[in-house]
Predict the 3D structure of the following.
Amino acid sequence: MPASTCTSPVLLQPLAKGRAWGGTTFARWKKFQAPAAGELAIGESWEVADLPQSIAHGCSRVAAGAGAGKTLHELLDLDTPGWMGRARLTAQGRFPLLVKFLDAAEHLSVQVHPDEAYAAVNTNAHLKTESWFVLAANPGATIWRGVKERVTKQEFEARLRGGASILDLLVEVRVQAGDCIDLPSGLCHALGQGITVAEIQTPSDTTFRVFDWNRNDPARLLHIDQAMKCIQFGKSQRLDHLPIRNAATAPAVQTRSLRTTLLSRTDHYSIERFEAMTATTLKVITQQRPVCWLVLQGSVHVTGEMPVTANAWQTLVFPAISEGRGAQLEMGTTFLRITLPDPMDRFIA
C-alpha cells in the first residue's frame, strides 16, 4: 500500500549526535556503536526530527513501516492531511515536535531558549519549550532550573560579564528516575551529570549558552548578549506553577491491565506514561492528530496491513488516520505517549 494512504505507524531510525558531555548509555542500549577514538561521545539520540536542511542530519528516516527509507518530511509531503489531521505543521511546514534521548555523563551548559517575542523579531531563532523525563539518575544528581527569585537581571548580567560563577544564583534541584520537568522558553536551565532523560520539545535547535563549565571549547561559544534578551527573572518565571511530577507518585488511572499517568501538559504537547500491568491489546487513539510512542521497556506490536514492532528505546509515530489500530503490549511494557494540542481547543470556552 502506498505510504500516502497507509494507516500504519512508522518506526524511525534514531540520529546519533556527538556531544562534549556525552556518555556510554546509547552503546549499552545498542542504539549506536561506541564512537571511535578521538570522536565525541554520543550525547543525544534524535528520535523524531524534522528540522530544516540547514541543520545537519536533522530529519528522521523511516526504518520500518510504510515508506521505509523515506524521511519523515517526505511522508508529510505525501499525505499532509492523513498524517496531521486536525494538528498543524510549523510555520516552516515541519513536524511540530522534536523528540530525543539525552545521556549526560558531564554537566550540560547553563542555557536558555528563545520565547515567542524574541523569535518574532529574530528570524534565525525559534521558540523552544521542552520537558525532561528522567530515565536514570545517579544518587544526588541535580539539575538547575530557573534563577533565584531575589536575583535581579542586573546582578545576573554583571556576574556573567565579569566571568564569575553564576551557579549560586540558580535554583538547584535534585532529581530521580520518573521525574518529569517542564522547561518553558525563557527559563534558564542546565542538565547535570549522571542523568539520562527523554526530551520532548518544540522543533528548534536554538540554544543560547551563558556558562559552559570553563570548557573553553571554540566550537561551543557563549551567547550572553542573546541570552540576556530571553532569560526570565523573578516571578515572571512562574516556578510555583511548574511542579515536578514523578511517575510513581503522580495521580494515575489504572485498570486491570493498564496504568496511565499524565506527566505534562503544555501549550505545545502533552506527555503520558503508559504501563502494561498484563499482556494486553491497546486501541490506538489519535483524536485526529499524530501521536508519538517512545518505548522504554518491553515491546509494542502494531497489527494491520503493515505490522511494525518497537522494542525498548525505539520510537513509533502514528499518523492521525491510524485511529483504531490495535497495539499488542507484552506485560511490563512502558512507553511515553506524546500528543499534540487540538487547535480548536482555543475556541472552546
Summary: The chain has two domains: 10-243, 246-347. The chain has six helices and 24 strands. The domain at 246-347 is CATH 2.60.120.10 (Jelly Rolls).
